[in-house]
Amino acid sequence: MTMTIYRWTGLAAAALLTITVGCSSNANIQAVKTEETPQQTAKPPTTTKPAPVTTVNPTPQPKPDTKPSKPVPEPVQEPKQPVMKQYYMNKNYFFKPISPDINKKAVLLTFDDGPKDKAIIESMLNTLDKHKAKAIFFVNGYRVKQHPELLKLIADRKQTIGNHSWDHIDLKKQSAAEVSKQLGDVQAIVKKITGISPKYFRPPFGSGGDAVKKEALRQGMLFMTWSNGSEDWLGKNKNKPDQVINNVMKQLAPGSNILMHELPWTAEALDILLTKMTSQGYVFINPDTIDITKK
Question: Which of the following is catalytic: 113, 164, 185, 261?
């Protein structure tokens, strides 16, 4: 069956809609034609292809000037030059120049039984720096264990660390195994803290003998006692810096190996003592310039 329906929209527009209905269960609806006046029906939106996008690189803006106009070169690491050896120690623990052109009026400064007191050590270090002097600080292992920061302070101030045994006992009375341990344990703890193993050994009380000398040599150290004792450790000189100065000066000679201790009256005496020595033409041996293989 075909039905034709006329529907009027508005005053002048007409649309003819033909609907064809089949007899089967499927229905086909076909829009034949639809016309409307332009005044009442908007035109369908026009699909406009987007204009091709042209990528334009923006003009680069200058970055803030956070660096110098000229590159700063990296610091050049100069290779560490070996220190020229100038002195050697004789059998009496005096230091002698290796060649005639080296000043023979030279002395070695040493301080035993530390590290134990920051104020005393800093006073000594400041005096040494003032006189451009180097020294050996002979340390005991048990004190290093108590005050590792003081050992590091001495090393950081470019002074030399020496081995004075772990417990400050008379090594001459000990077994070979105990002597080896007393020296070796100090070597190990100093190396752990400073990165450098001591090259100098002084036995407590100056008591060692051939067996201790041999063990020190085996562990890579020069065995020494002293040739000039300040006697700052004696009770009669306690709190008497002037007496410490007098004791050193009356024994002073070219090559003196001067024994002192980490004591408050020694720290107090040190500036005047070094001033007196330099006024007499003495210089201070840098331990790095000692040839520990020459005898």
Answer: 261
Q: Give the DSSP letter of residue 28.
A: B
CA gap 88, 222 in Å, rounded = 10
- Is residue 261 annotated as a catalytic residue, yes or no? yes
Q: What is the pLDDT of residues 160-169, one digit of tens each?
A: 999 999 999 9
Whether pLDDT at 37 is above 90:
no
4, 163, 170 from 258: Cα distances, Å: 134, 16, 21
Separation CA 106–CA 283 (nearest Å): 5
Minimum mean pLDDT among 33-37, 133-137, 233-237, 287-291: which range?
33-37
**Active-site hit among 101, 112, 129, 232:** 112
Helices then strands (H, E): number in the chain?
Answer: 7, 12
User: How far is 212 from 169, CA to CA, in rounded Å?
Assistant: 13
The pLDDT of residue 110 is above 90: yes
Distance of CA 37 to the CA centre of its chain: 92
112 annotated active-site: yes
